[in-house]
Write a structure and sequence with these properties.
Blueprint: H1 2-14, H2 19-23, H3 30-61, H4 65-88, H5 96-117
Keywords: Signal
Protein name: DUF1311 domain-containing protein
Pfam family, one: LprI
């Protein structure tokens, strides 16, 4: 357990994990923290899926629907590959699911903001 505490402290000090990831997931065990991070990602994904129809409609209005759909598919592939690479350095460790889920949440939040920016004001 001490090794985990040192690892978490090092990650926070080096910016490897955002402090909010741990603050938002208070748990007593790594499993509880991992589950909370996975839940935060599911919430972020739900927000992205809620914005998607409006972003796609806005793109369709300008004739860019196909371009946005292609970009979204490529973004999903990028997100999955980037987060797999970020979590790989913790392969086999109990913190790996936390790192992976937090990366998915972070990139999904950014994509949701990008899609919102496409919406008419």
């Amino acid at each position: 357990m001490r090794h985990l505490e040192v690892t978490l402290a090092a990650l926070l000090a080096c910016g490897g994990l955002p402090g909010t990831a741990l603050a938002a997931c208070p748990g007593n065990t790594q499993l509880e923290i991992n589950d909370c991070a996975a839940s935060a990602y599911r919430d972020a994904d739900a927000q992205l899926n809620a914005v998607w129809p409006a972003a796609r409609a806005a793109a369709a209005a300008s004739g860019a629907d196909g371009l946005l759909l292609d970009a979204q598919r490529k973004w999903i592939a990028f997100r999955d590959a980037a987060c797999a690479a970020e979590a790989a350095q913790y392969g086999g460790g109990s913190i790996q699911p936390l790192v992976h889920a937090d990366c998915l949440r972070r990139l999904t939040d950014r994509r949701t903001a990008d899609l919102r920016a496409l919406l008419p004001q």
